[in-house]
Amino acid sequence: MQTNIGMRFNKHDYLNAFFGIVLTCFLYSCTFDYPKTEISAINKIKLPDTADIPDTKTGEAIRYGLELFTRTAYYLGPEGKVMKLAGNKMNCKNCHLDNGIRLYSNNLIESYLKYPQYRAREGEVLTIEDRINNCFERPMNGKILPYNSVEMRAMVAYMRWLCEGRTASYENDTLHLGIVNLLDRPSSIENGAKIYADKCQRCHGADGQGQITPDKSTYTYPPLWGPNSYAQGSSMHRAITATRFVKWSMPYLPNRTAPQLSDEEAFDVVAFVNCDSIHPRPYRPLQKDCPDLPNKPIDFPSGPYLDSFPERQHRLGPFKPIKAFYEKLK
Ligand code: HEC
Ligand code: HEC
């Protein structure tokens, strides 16, 4: 977040700001669905088109990787045709919308370029294969995909193809998830329950179990909690990460890349979905996660922490004081 604190303003700046606000309001009213910045971002970025996957042997691997992203349960789920790895019947694309291509929805078009990368959760440098396996173990609540398998190579080939023609820095996070502003109050589980009933329940169900396909092989609407959903300590189980995804991606609409929820609504509904006492999910021991305490994500739901804010505040906020604590350390 950028702040203007400490900047000096003169008369011209105030005039410019005034006309800027008038112009912004006008432009915004013309583009109710897509705020101006999002339109320019979408136009500037050439997104990968799976129709362009080459007709070569490498292309075959890329296409198989894409297939594994889309139909993970079919190939690698609890009754997978190739291997029985995942502990639930979700698919990678359930959280990486449009198979990792949709902006701000756990987009993956720069990911291959960012690894090997140091990750605070493990306190180690991870390869792209390690990172893929993180998602097999946590959100998919399963076992790792063998590093040398045809399937791992295919998934990596697909991820490499997604980045074709791009450059990225290790820190680049602009496309991956959308922005949320941290609240000055704790998230409200009670308010979240109301938003859930209003905006989520018709697809994900009153019981949060989603909707399984008629042949029971996977989900039309994936579950948000319970034994068939993502495990504790998954990135989706972290308040800020999940809020960034939900604000920009839900309620689900095809091709949508603009937020449909306010920051307040998104934080509150995530607090309700991720509340472990109301909504249990697959257990993972989390105490050994993130051994690098100064760099532990501030919304990691389980201690130990370097700070003395209660665990509840790491789950529900307000996050600004926690963020300030760690910024001071640096
Ligand atoms: C329940 C949701 C969920 C599912 C299912 C899921 N992921 Fe993820 N994945 C995430 C989230 C959330 C992140 C990290 C967001 C963050 O912190 O930036 C992530 C991150 C990743 C990254 C690292 C991206 C980067 O740029 O650092 C890769 C690679 C990845 N996932 C691959 C997969 C694969 C392959 C599958 C299927 C086997 C999968 N994911 C299934 C939620 C999910
Ligand atoms: C119109 C139906 C619909 C509505 C309404 C909806 N979702 Fe979803 N949601 C989906 C679909 C479909 C997916 C999987 C997307 C895919 O596979 O391409 C999904 C995926 C998700 C995921 C990631 C996968 C998982 O199961 O963990 C989360 C989290 C999520 N939705 C939360 C919400 C929340 C919170 C709301 C309410 C604000 C909401 N959704 C409203 C259809 C919907």
Distinct ligands, ions and cofactors found in the model: heme C
Radius of gyration: 21 Å
pLDDT < 50 runs, ≥5 residues? 1-36
Note the total helix count.
Answer: 14
Bin the helical content. 40-55%
Number of domains: 3
Shape: globular
CATH superfamily of the largest domain: Cytochrome c-like domain
Structural class: mainly alpha
Q: In what order do the strands lie side by side in the largest sheet?
A: 1-2
Provide the CATH top-level class of the largest domain: Mainly Alpha
Count the E strands: 4
Beta-strand percentage range: under 5%
CATH architecture identity of the largest domain? Orthogonal Bundle
Describe the structure.
The protein has 14 helices and four strands. It is mostly helical. It has three domains: 11-44, no CATH class; 50-162, Cytochrome Bc1 Complex, Chain D, domain 2, CATH 1.10.760.10; 177-330, Cytochrome c-like domain (Cytochrome Bc1 Complex, Chain D, domain 2). The model is unreliable at 1-36 (pLDDT under 50). The site of one heme C has 22 residues, from helix 10 and helix 12.
Task: Please tag this protein with its features.
330 residues, mainly alpha, Cytochrome Bc1 Complex, Chain D, domain 2, 3 domains, two-stranded antiparallel ribbon, two-stranded antiparallel sheet, 14 helices, 40% helix, binds heme C
Topology:
Blueprint: H1 11-30, H2 36-44, H3 57-70, H4 72-76, H5 97-100, H6 111-114, E1 117-119, E2 124-126, H7 128-137, H8 150-162, H9 189-199, H10 201-204, E3 211-212, E4 219-221, H11 239-249, H12 263-273, H13 311-316, H14 320-329
Antiparallel strand pairs: 1-2, 3-4
Helix pairs in contact: 3-8, 9-12, 11-12
Bound molecules: heme C (2 copies).
One heme C is lined by residues 93-95, 97, 199-200, 202-204, 221-224, 229-230, 236, 246, 250-252, 269, 273.
